[in-house]
Fold these 4 entries.
Entry 1:
Amino acid sequence: MGSGRNSYHHGDLRRSLIDEGLALTRSRGPRALGLRAVTRQVGVSANAAYRHFANQQALVAAVAGEILEKMAAQMREFITADPSPDPREQARHRLRAVGLGYITFAVSEPGWFETAFFGTEMSDRQSTGSDDHDETPERHETASDDHDEAPEHYDEAPPFALLVEALDGMVAAGVLSAERRPGAEWSCWSAVHGFAELVVHGPLRQRESVEVMTLAARVVEDIIAGIR
Amino acid sequence: MGSGRNSYHHGDLRRSLIDEGLALTRSRGPRALGLRAVTRQVGVSANAAYRHFANQQALVAAVAGEILEKMAAQMREFITADPSPDPREQARHRLRAVGLGYITFAVSEPGWFETAFFGTEMSDRQSTGSDDHDETPERHETASDDHDEAPEHYDEAPPFALLVEALDGMVAAGVLSAERRPGAEWSCWSAVHGFAELVVHGPLRQRESVEVMTLAARVVEDIIAGIR
DNA sequence: GCAACATGTGTACACTGTGAACTTCATACA
DNA sequence: TGTATGAAGTTCACAGTGTACACATGTTGC
């Protein structure tokens, strides 16, 4: 059948829940992504979500995954063709675009950014807090019964892959020496992610976005110069 | 009288709540800092906390403030006297120590680090979510415009002040040019905070701490080289 | 047509933060 | 020496949360 919801069964509830999760987090961040809130919005009972997600965290992880895809897509748009014929300058431009694209996404979609990187942390269940100290042996990852589900693998996330590509391109173009290549992703990722973090819930929060992007350009420039 | 709790009144409940908050967040992060959990641990009713804090966020903010003090203290310990007589090298060493001290704190006290920078975000109340029409009966507004509540001033936080000091020292020592000084704090803060973030809930989470500190040294070196 | 199965509903429970009214105690003042 | 006052802690209540369990409903293979 089509994706209508004219009857008892919904059609594609999983898709609808994720879509509504995207809408909620876009405007109000990860704390708006309650299990009851999402199901209420879709017009379905709260427990219906458990047919498609092991728990709330799994829903958040699924939404976060789609946000990371959107982020990578916007970053790719950011990497337009470079007018410069010099491959050295092209490689540098590409790396710059990766960094600025990352930050641009965080600035223009703070709710999504927050959800992608801190969403699952926000929705943790409590653990009784009994007085004797426990070592918290949690780590129950719900075994990922479904196909997708890559909740915490930032290092496999599409934006990270773009960064790695750009850095490899730097080496290929001869702008970055091979022995300084390993570890460079952590410097770049740290600077760019840290800056986004400062914008989203740090001291740069209420600054004008043009001022923010000026500072962002400085940060990106500095870290590219720093990895050498 | 002393700080005993032998009678109906507690003595210094505010202090005890913060101390217990520090203990809880140290081992289990900001999500363990529930209002009921803290008061239960102290042995007092839940609403007793409201005599000392406007709400849960205020408690978290108070705990976060004390953590930032501890962080700055550990960073200051990290800045030991430099054997080098060269003031240029001293200034650089100082900046390096600020960065590595910051990261070291995050690595050795992840629960505290998370609480200091993300604690208040974790405990936000929801707002009904029905963007349709609201027929909520009269809602008495608490109108708490009265007392301040400034929980988010990272840029006035002690660790940030240490960074600014170190950068000014770089200029004074002639290692950093005056016209590249403005904005340099954002580059450094971004790189260091971003790296700490990757360690605390990013892809570097379960790496050995010696390996983490090796990578940290690289990041700090890169960003110092980058600001020029 | 009917069993098996997947999907959505209803009820219930243990939690949470917080408001309002009540109780206890320490202290200033007659 | 009382006694009013007010700060500090208690109890009760309420709305809201995630989720476990039993049940209802619709789809699909035989």
Note: Residues 162 and 218 of chain A are 21 Å apart (CA to CA).
Entry 2:
Amino acid sequence: MADDPLSTTFAALADPTRRAILARLAEGAATVKELSEPFAMSGPAVSKHLRVLERAGLITRGRDAQWRPCTLDATPLREVTEWADGFRRFWDDSHRRLDAYLERMKEQEDDH
Amino acid sequence: MADDPLSTTFAALADPTRRAILARLAEGAATVKELSEPFAMSGPAVSKHLRVLERAGLITRGRDAQWRPCTLDATPLREVTEWADGFRRFWDDSHRRLDAYLERMKEQEDDH
DNA sequence: CAGTTAGATAACCGAGTGGTTAGGTACCCA
DNA sequence: TGGGTACCTAACCACTCGGTTATCTAACTG
């Protein structure tokens, strides 16, 4: 996998378990144990997923006695939407109409 | 890699070469050769990237004599932004203010 | 202290990735 | 018909990924 920030973020999101973890964290911080509950997989597996999310900057991990509470950090998701927004005109009808309008304007300019 | 649609899309986007290909296709259809130009890699490597993009539904490939023109299909990107929008309140200040407002309303309700 | 709980690390495995080179297919053109 | 161009497939390589079990550390609790 490439190691530029956007690629790291996309790669981290390319797994339903990790997206479910983020969805859970959207409701508030949680311990590793709590995050593991919904999944039929071992602790170390969840640990690995969390490390991927941490490296992508999507979560931060604190410390409270023997617990390591995870909290969501959605900043990288903003970059994701900003990137995808560059393609909005290809699916958004209103943007498509605006594109067509600008195209007509440009053609009028060219007529001069 | 998981094979659900969203994971497939995210995985396809987790590579700068593939994102550059999509950016190029945003300016119009292109042949495999044209898409290869900017990259210092062999033809088969580009072919593989295109196959990943095709499996993710991000491009479609036509046929014109010995050329296989690629065109962009951004529909999966809409799903991406829709998913990320579920987290918008964690980075968007205006949404954060709305959240706080709703929270205060809820507290007032609880006082009754 | 011993025992339990939360969690990380290490070593391993099968499958997939991203690249290569070599060779094959399909089409156009002289 | 023969040659060049566009593209794909096959086989291979080093590496990563997502999972496992076994083992370790760190902290609380009796």
Note: The helical segments of chain B are 5-13, 16-25, 32-36, 43-55, 75-85, 93-111.
Entry 3:
Amino acid sequence: MNRLPDDALELDRQVCFALAVASRSVIGVYRPILEPLGLTHPQYLVMLALWGDVPLRFREIADMLRMDPATLSPIVKRLEHSGLIERAAVDGDERTFSLAPTEAGLALRERALDVPPAVIDRLGIPVERLMALRDELSLVIDAVDRPA
Amino acid sequence: MNRLPDDALELDRQVCFALAVASRSVIGVYRPILEPLGLTHPQYLVMLALWGDVPLRFREIADMLRMDPATLSPIVKRLEHSGLIERAAVDGDERTFSLAPTEAGLALRERALDVPPAVIDRLGIPVERLMALRDELSLVIDAVDRPA
DNA sequence: TCTTTTTCGTTTGCGCACAAACAAAATACT
DNA sequence: AGTATTTTGTTTGTGCGCAAACGAAAAAGA
């Protein structure tokens, strides 16, 4: 089996490495497609969340995207500064706030509709295969979430 | 099918998102395991490369790891500063150099042999499933590599 | 040979990821 | 009520990822 040290190191190199490279590669596919929209990939994910459900609290977005608050905070600020989203007070809690797209943010959604087809076309991978990949990745994510 | 804009955006959110989250999650699994070795994940990948094959030129490592030279350059410097690797001149080309583990770098390999089992144990995913995932990810990487 | 182009690694700048330390507000406890 | 604890978002520091501009050396072309 794969108990031999050398083989283990080799497999390790392949798996963790493939995951990291695939992630960077696919994000790299998005980059030129998102660039005209003025969005980075993480910013795109935040907008996707807010295009689907509004309003969302800061904490809710962080949880949905599995993003550290310390990471999300500056991203939200940039999106605000870009005029794509704006924050609103949440009654009864001065600590948090909710977020929603602005007029411009909603308008951007129309242009964003072209993004997924462009990415899928660029990848040239059948949709059902992408869904299988998503399921496979979900297993990994769940495995990590499972308490040690 | 998946031609409807809303569904496309939804699938997009799921796939690109799952890939990014899975990558970060798995690297997060490595973090506490690599921390005692004084390595980050990218640094670990460089060491893996040099534990398998020496000497390697800077450019060769960058190609193997699909890493931008601008990204690899500071990583190499940190590994040098940690005393784990050292550079040697390549005869006939003053621009580049080769890299190889130092004594300490080779010694670290022994401790690194425990890393893959620890990761696999933490994930709790069968090895054959990991290999399947690796193959699936390779397809994605190849798809991106395929010229548009 | 001399010039032009290509290849190399580095540096700078910007954004993201994450740990750690913080400050302020809400909640729980006594 | 008054204190302690928890929750929430921000800030700071370090490292990675990538584009762009750079300087130097090698290779190609004239």
Note: Residues 24, 27-28, 31, 58-59, 62, 69-70, 72-74, 93-97 of chain B lie near DNA strand C (CB under 10 Å from a C1').
Entry 4:
Amino acid sequence: MIGGVEARHLRYAIALAEHQHFGRAAASLGIAQPPLSAQIAAVEREVGQRLFDRTPRGVFPTAAGTAFLNRARRALDEISAASVEAGRAARGETGLLRMGFIGSALLDPLPGVLGRFRGSRPDVRLDLREMSSPEAAAALVAGDLDVAVGRGNPRGAGAERLVTVPIGADHLIAVVATSHPFAGRAEITFEQLAAERLIMSAPDQEPAVAAHLRSVFAADTTALEAATTSRDVHTIIGLAACDVGVGLGPARMRLITRGDVWFCDVTPHFRLPDLQLSFRADDTSPVLAAFLDVVRANCRDVGSRLDEVLALHARRSAVPGTTPG
Amino acid sequence: MIGGVEARHLRYAIALAEHQHFGRAAASLGIAQPPLSAQIAAVEREVGQRLFDRTPRGVFPTAAGTAFLNRARRALDEISAASVEAGRAARGETGLLRMGFIGSALLDPLPGVLGRFRGSRPDVRLDLREMSSPEAAAALVAGDLDVAVGRGNPRGAGAERLVTVPIGADHLIAVVATSHPFAGRAEITFEQLAAERLIMSAPDQEPAVAAHLRSVFAADTTALEAATTSRDVHTIIGLAACDVGVGLGPARMRLITRGDVWFCDVTPHFRLPDLQLSFRADDTSPVLAAFLDVVRANCRDVGSRLDEVLALHARRSAVPGTTPG
DNA sequence: CGCCGATCATACGTAGAAAGTATCGCGGTG
DNA sequence: CACCGCGATACTTTCTACGTATGATCGGCG
């Protein structure tokens, strides 16, 4: 019959040690004195040691009692902390959010979203990993990520278990070195691009973008085939600055300010695949819910689909018992 | 109705998280499934959060449940540690022993006693302070010490509340520089001493010794009055080495080996006040009891009074309930 | 598509434990 | 020596955790 020590025993022992008097301790606990005597006797029987010295001048803990009480206080602290932490976790105030994202998302939607999220949930640990959209989708279905920000709708095994919503549209622009003939121009055409050496994201890294581009250059894909590829926008811009070629990327590239490159629109404006946010449809994590709230407040540009989906994911965490207050 | 979370609830929640199945968890707890359901529901009501997701594929903790379980495990660890630590404290295996002692005790009885005590009770914190016998007695009655090792029976307010037992006898010897005429002699007489400049412990530091010496030199105390005084044996020996005079001290001084001094007996052998060990008569500390056990085993030289007193102080820490085993 | 098995929740009676009331025993005190 | 404060004990009452029986729900399978 091991482990019969209950939290009540600890609370009673602590009250007794505080008041050094059975009667007053019992009163402070809202019970009568005899039950307190009985419960203290029960703990002492459980522990196998006398925990209090009953003297005519008061009740004092023995050496064993002192050691016991130290641990008892810590145990009760842990128990109350357990309830508090459970509440915080349920409200999404603590926990972990693992996010995979493509580099270009770091330029526009993520700084605002993550900043506000960190502000409202400072105790949520963020695990941020830059990766390609297919990698992120795979990690999401595998349970290695909680949210993914990428381009294109996730494909592959388990993709149907993901919810994906658009969080940002943009279009294709070009970036060139200031020494390039395009420098200074507000816009260039696709025909002019076809004659240039191109720098773009790798097709296997961002298949949605590559497929999109291929459809634009349908007439002559030789420029695309010969393109230098890279896995992140900073590298594309850096290579363009070296005049390796003409960089192609999302309009949010303009947010990167450096003196050795020139950005110009490509006409006609060609809309890139939307930036999408994905998460598992069956994920009920409150941290995710809190994050989606922030996303909803910050990314209402693309479509009402966001609100619709996120409203659908309103937490069903009702508790059967009495609602406090 | 706050704080209704009981240790049982924690144990049940942890078992449920382990088995991910109400029926098996209940079986592992030795109860039926419905009570487990009821108890889990009770915790969830107490905490105000749903802690487990009941899915067709098993029972899994929610985010709140995970946070709760982490704390719950720690709380249970503290509770079981409380019992263990109480037992250890009751057996005197943990705790604190504050000891005051005179420097000369550090030469003979303390190294053996403290060494064996540390060996048998490695987790007891020792607080050792060198001080004069009267200081130690006062600190003892004030509750600032647990044991005192000194010479002479404690006097002063509260001394009657102390138990004092002899733990070592010795006699007076002299120590001189190797350049002193006494060097090389096996023994000298009190008459010879009377003509020398003396070095001895300060009368206000060790009144028992001083009174003893005064009775010996009753015929002529001028040498005593003119004596250089010091509060510890090492200084007496050091001063003797400088040929400041003839040092007087306990025979256990011989345990200090240094080449520049010579020890010689003083005839007739004059027995010094016994080394005494004192503690509060009402002190029921198991650490003290354990220490007294070691003392009893190591200091059976002086008298049977030690055994007698310590047997009287056999712990009355019986526990009313069932004795384990 | 409907039946069956598994699983958890609900209902209800029971037993045990904790709380309440009354009283006793023990020390210290005037 | 009688009194009083305090904790322990005796006994009753109340509450609650447990057990048995049963219901509701969801997948799986024929």
Note: Residues 21-23, 33-34, 37-38, 41, 54, 56, 59 of chain B lie near DNA strand C (CB under 10 Å from a C1').
